[in-house]
Structure formats: structure tokens, C-alpha cells
Amino acid sequence: MLIGDKIRSLRKNKNITQSQLADALSVSSQSVSKWENHLSVPDISTLPVIARYFGITMDELFNYRLDALNYKERFIRFMVNNGMLRFGEFTLKSGRKSPYLIHSGYNLTGSQISKLGEFYAECIKEHNIDSNCLVGIGNREIPLVIATSMTLFNKYGIDTSHCVDFNIENDAFESKNITLITDAFTSGKTLRSSLDNIKSQIGKYPSDIVVCVDRMEQDEHSTFSAKHEIEKQYGVIIHPIVSLDDIIKAVDNCVISAGGYAENLNEYRDCYKGL
Description:
The chain is of the alpha/beta class and 275 residues long. It has two domains: 1-63, Orthogonal Bundle (434 Repressor (Amino-terminal Domain)), CATH 1.10.260; 91-247, Rossmann fold (3-Layer(aba) Sandwich). It is built from twelve helices and seven strands. It has helices at residues 3-13, 18-25, 29-36, 47-54, 58-62, 71-81, 110-126, 141-156, 189-202, 226-234, 244-252, 262-272; strands spanning 85-91, 97-102, 133-135, 161-163, 178-182, 208-214, 237-243. The strands form two sheets. Strands 4-3-5-6-7 form a five-stranded parallel β-sheet, sandwiched between helices. Strand 1 (85-91) and strand 2 form a beta hairpin. The chain is elongated.
């Protein structure tokens, strides 16, 4: 059931008109009509108001339970609920103007880091990544590497080593299948720097990279996607937990609300999507 159908059902059960609901929510009756006819969705700030008015939870408003979502949908919703995925007007390091921002690595609580580790581990398990060593570059990857390693063992019985300090002998990594744990990437510049850093420290590149979001954008040097170009250049396989396509699909299916930026997401993807 789409959110417009849910609002219509709740309104009719309460035996009120679209105009009466609009007055209660301080919106126009045209807005309510558009929701119920799937021409638009409520603004993200309006959703809690709707839920309170009908005396239901947000989950009940969206008409699903978390255990009914696949792990990609659960991850996207987790990011939104914890401020790691935001919609608005942002300028990225690449200089591109973006209607969304991924901010997953700073000022996280223990519970948030633990949950992120679960999603990274689930991605590793789903893609059958044959890794016995997880690595991270930079302070924000350190807790993610540790949390992912612990989840792999506690939940799946997969016992991996992990490394965030490369000041050890290179031969310690000769027999390791290395997986890099990192967050999102845009044009690929920062990810390339991380890969070059790892190679200079331990003499080899990771075989796999797990990222939280593939923005699906063009590489800084070509019209192909950064993911495609980095995989070709470094001989690695990049496994995103979710992509921009997944985020847009979650918005379309009312798993999350983009707060009025749904159309901007589609336009941004069409403008910068790599081949």
C-alpha cells in the first residue's frame, strides 16, 4: 500500500473530508488530494504530524514493519533516521551541487557504529566476499572495520583479522585476501588515494571494497562511472551496500521521504550518471 492509499484509508475511517484533514494538518486540500492520487507525497516534516493526528506510529503510517524490508531498504531508512543521509542543497568536494548528502563517518554513537557494522557484514555475506582481512584508512573507518569484523564472527561465524595500522611487516599480508571498508565516493579521487596509500604500505591492493553508497557518478577522468573506472584501473571489485538507484527506489516506494527533493534526485542522477 502506497502512503497516499494509507492516508485515504485513515481519512475515510475517521469519516472526514480532504478539506477537514487539510485544515487539521495546516496544508491545502489540493495537497491532500495529490497525496491520495499519487501525484506527490507529504513533506518529511509533515509525516510525523499526520501520524500524530491519526494516533499511529510512523511505521504504521508507512504500513510496514522493519522486518518486512530487505536489507538495502533497512539501511537507507537507518541512514535517514540517524542523519547520515540528508536531502537539501549541498556542495560536494568535487564541486558538484547535490540534492543529497551522505555523512556516515563522524560523531557516531556506539549503537550507530554497531548497526553500521551489521549492514557492512550483511553486504559481505550477500556477495560471498572471500576475505580474511578487513582494512580501513582514516579515523572514520577504524570503528567501521572493527564493528564489521565483530559482526561477521558473531552473526555468521566468519573470523577475519582487521588492520587499521599498516606499520607492520609487508609479508604479514601476503596470504591475506584484503577487503577495504569505506563510506561513499563521488568522482573517485579520494578512493584512489586510499588505494594508493594501501599499496605503498603493504605492497598490494585490496581485492574487494565495500562502500555504503555508490553515487553512480562519472569518474573525474572519463564519462564512465567512477566505480567502473576504479575497478578497471586497480583490479578490485566494489560492492556498495546501496546505490543512488536504490535510494530513488526507496523514495518512490515511500520507504523514506526526500522532503520535496525527489525530482531533484532523478535530475541529478540523469546529469552525472556514469556509463
